[in-house]
Each structure stands twice: as structure tokens, then as C-alpha cells.
């Protein structure tokens, strides 16, 4: 280190010296404190946060009711393990989740610590409920970095040299209309993709051995790709026909991000099981699996869960977060924010042919960069340069997509209009500079 280095550079140097290289660096910002939509780095510089801890702080950084709930619970008890000693915050949170995310006539839930754990447990529940081994997933999907999570995840760089992977996992193409529709209309494209799905039951895996199909209704890491309405309806019908359970992964898209508690509520298509994490606890590690009661109860006692399932402190944080989201009507706010971002980026797209697509639901917006007006020719370098330039100008952004050519916007939903428009000004300026 040198005296000339900023505190941020010094901290990043210390990180490089001690932290394993495999821990990714998506943005070079640092943090000393954070509040609302603003992160203040260790040098005292303020940054507008458009990453939200990868979609974790929909209710903002350090919301006062959540901080208070954490403090109050920490004074009572920190840990007993719900398997050993039952406590009310776990039960109360499950009741709250079942109310806002109902799965049929009766819903049951379980709590764990991370999104990857939620996926792992959802698959175990589906296998026990159906007595079948196989799982179908999609290209461009992301479901975590545990063994089953990596097996389901499509992006190769998240699982490089980490095999062998879990068996009985089969992958079909995600119906990415923007990238693959060619000259087809949406209706024609969906029919083609549903035909491909039906054919997979004969050419890829015996459908009678398939326990579940897992899908993100709007893909996160894959590039913020919303699934077509008619395809999701067809997928639901296909699962019903063959006795396959339909699992929705809502870990990045849940808790007001799209303007609903879960993105599947936009579609009116009911999952059998669904998974949640990220913004559920405002940054504390908590996740959930919800499902129809008879499916959830099919798992034998002791086969799902773990020591830290539903930490009481994390449950308190989640309960306070959900109440804050209701009080502040963050679902409505997400629709408003998304409308502003989409309108500005769509207008800006007219002067920037490198912007191939602006898409998403609510405030979960992706901006895809391409070369030569070709969706099959991703402009990865441009996207990386924009992220870097925005960081220098006080805007924290991260990318997504198989080729990292999609900017994803995950700003806290408590962001002010002034902060939002200032951030979009910075973004537009950087796009101009780099194109």
C-alpha cells in the first residue's frame, strides 16, 4: 500500500491479499455505511445503489423498523435451533408467507438460510412427494452454487471444474423470445417451444420419471428474461397432464421487485412449490420454501432443514421487512419505478443501436447490449465498460446474462425520484461515452 492510495483501494488490496480468488468481484465499490438507496464508501463518497446487494435490499439499506426488530430479538435469544426448541417468530413468518403467497387451499412453509438451500430442499420435497428422481430445468437458468444448485444452473463459469454434478437433471431451452424468435410472432414462437417441451418427454427423459420442472418466471442471472405468458400456462398444463410438480424460483424476483410479492402472481399461474430469499430479510440470511400442504408434508421428518433453519433474528427481520413493504406499498412503488426506467431507456435506445432490448417486470429491468443489431452477437465489453464508468461516477451497477452483456437494475424501492433520475443520467452519460 502507498499513502497516495484511497482507503477504498487499500481495502480492495487487502481483499485481494487474503480472500480466495474464487469469490467474485462484480463491482469495485466499498462501503462504510448504507441507508435507503445510498452507499457511502470508506472514503466518504456517496454512491447510488442500482445493485441492491444483488436484489436483497428492496426495502432499502438499514430500514429503521427492521433494524429495531433485529435489536429487540437479539436481546431475547439468538439461537435455539427450531428443530430443538420451537419459537414464535418462525411460525409467525410462515403464517405471513402463506397469506401473501397462497398455494391452493392450504399452504405450508419451511424456512432456511439461503436461496440455494431453498432450491435444494424444494427438489428433495418434490422427489419425496412424487417418488420420482428426475428434474427438468432450463438454459440460462440460475439456481445457486451448491451441488444441486450448480447442476440446475446453466452458466458455465459458476461451475467450472466443479463436477461431477448431480444426476437426473435434464435441461431444455428457455423460451427467450427476444433472442430466438427469428421471424416468428409471439404466438408462433410459444407453440414451437411448447412442442419442443412435449417432444422432450419422448426424446430426452421418460416423463414418468420426472419429479419436477423448475423455472424462474423471470430469469435473474440469465439476463432478466420474462417467460412468455402462454408458455407458462402451457408448462402448467403439461405438468398437470404428467403428474409433474412445477417449481417457481422467485429468489431474485420476489418481495415487491416486480410489483407483486412474487412474479408468478403477474401471470396468474399457480406453482406447486416456490422458493424465496434475498429481499425477504433485508440482508439477513433467510429463505423459504412454500407449497401446497399435501406436497410439503410428503417429506419425511428430518429430511429437510438444518441447524440454522429460520434463525429467530432473521425471522424478526423478515417480519418487519414484510410489514414495511405493506406500509410503504412497495409493490406499487416498483411499478412506478419500472415505468420511469423503461420509458427513459426506451427513448434513449432510439439514439443508441447498441441497446438491443429493454425488458422486465416492475422494477426488475434488464438492458441488453448487442453488436450489429444482432441479438446473437452480445456486446460484453461495452457492458463491462459502462459498469466501470458508472462506478467512477457514483452509480453502483452489475451485469447479468450468459455473456454478461445485460445491465440489471435492482435499485432499492425506497429510492427517491431525484436519486433515480440522477442515476439514470449517469447511466445514459456512460452509455454515450462508450458507444
Automatic annotation (TrEMBL):
Single GO MF annotation: pyridoxal phosphate binding
Cofactor: pyridoxal 5'-phosphate
Domain of life (superkingdom): Bacteria
Assigned keywords, A-Z: Aminotransferase, Pyridoxal phosphate, Transferase
Pfam families: Aminotran_3 (PF00202)
Keyword hit for Transferase: yes
PANTHER family cross-referenced by the UniProt entry: AMINOTRANSFERASE CLASS III, LEUCINE_METHIONINE RACEMASE
Family: Belongs to the class-III pyridoxal-phosphate-dependent aminotransferase family.
Protein name: 4-aminobutyrate aminotransferase apoenzyme
Organism: Salegentibacter salegens
Amino acid at each position: 500500500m502507498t499513502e497516495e492510495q484511497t482507503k477504498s483501494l487499500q481495502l480492495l488490496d487487502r481483499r485481494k491479499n487474503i480472500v480466495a480468488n474464487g469469490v467474485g468481484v462484480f463491482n469495485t465499490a466499498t462501503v462504510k455505511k448504507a441507508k435507503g438507496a445510498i452507499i457511502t464508501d470508506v472514503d466518504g463518497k456517496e454512491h447510488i445503489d442500482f445493485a441492491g446487494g444483488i436484489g436483497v435490499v428492496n426495502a432499502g439499506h438499514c430500514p429503521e423498523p427492521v433494524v429495531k426488530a433485529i435489536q429487540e430479538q437479539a436481546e431475547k435469544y439468538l439461537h435455539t435451533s427450531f428443530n430443538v426448541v420451537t419459537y414464535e417468530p418462525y411460525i409467525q413468518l410462515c403464517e405471513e408467507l402463506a397469506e401473501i403467497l397462497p398455494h391452493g387451499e392450504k399452504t405450508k412453509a419451511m424456512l432456511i438460510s439461503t436461496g440455494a438451500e431453498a432450491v435444494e430442499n424444494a427438489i428433495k420435497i418434490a422427489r419425496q412427494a412424487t417418488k420420482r428422481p428426475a428434474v427438468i430445468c432450463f438454459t440460462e437458468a440460475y439456481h445457486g452454487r451448491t451441488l444441486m444448485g450448480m447442476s440446475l444452473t446453466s452458466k458455465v463459469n459458476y461451475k467450472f471444474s466443479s463436477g461431477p454434478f448431480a444426476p437426473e437433471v435434464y435441461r431444455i431451452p428457455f423460451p427467450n423470445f427476444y433472442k430466438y424468435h427469428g421471424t416468428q410472432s409471439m404466438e408462433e414462437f410459444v407453440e414451437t417451444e411448447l412442442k419442443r417441451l412435449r417432444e422432450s418427454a419422448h426424446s430426452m427423459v421418460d416423463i414418468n420419471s420426472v419429479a419436477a420442472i423448475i423455472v424462474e418466471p423471470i430469469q435473474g442471472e440469465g439476463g432478466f428474461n420474462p417467460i412468455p405468458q402462454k408458455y407458462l400456462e402451457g408448462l402448467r398444463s403439461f405438468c398437470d397432464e404428467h403428474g409433474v410438480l412445477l417449481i417457481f424460483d422467485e429468489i431474485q424476483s420476489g418481495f415487491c421487485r416486480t410489483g407483486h410479492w412474487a412474479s408468478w402472481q403477474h401471470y396468474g399461474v399457480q406453482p406447486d412449490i416456490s422458493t424465496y430469499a434475498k429481499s425477504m430479510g433485508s440482508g439477513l440470511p433467510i429463505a423459504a420454501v412454500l407449497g401446497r400442504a399435501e406436497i410439503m408434508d410428503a417429506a419425511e421428518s428430518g429430511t429437510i432443514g438444518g441447524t440454522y433453519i429460520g434463525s429467530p433474528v432473521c425471522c424478526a427481520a423478515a417480519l418487519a421487512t414484510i410489514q414495511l413493504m405493506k406500509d410503504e406499498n412497495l409493490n406499487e412503488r416498483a411499478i412506478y419505478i419500472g415505468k420511469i426506467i423503461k420509458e427513459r431507456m426506451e427513448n434513449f435506445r432510439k439514439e443508441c443501436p447498441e441497446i438491443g432490448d429493454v425488458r422486465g417486470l416492475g422494477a426488475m429491468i434488464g438492458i441488453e447490449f448487442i453488436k450489429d443489431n444482432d441479438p446473437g452477437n452480445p456486446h460484453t465489453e461495452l457492458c463491462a465498460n459502462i459498469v466501470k464508468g458508472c462506478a467512477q461516477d457514483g452509480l453502483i451497477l452489475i451485469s447479468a446474462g450468459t455473456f454478461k452483456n445485460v445491465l440489471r437494475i435492482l435499485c432499492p424501492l425506497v429510492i427517491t425520484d431525484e436519486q433515480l433520475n440522477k442515476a439514470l443520467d449517469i447511466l445514459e452519460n456512460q452509455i454515450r461515452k462508450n458507444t
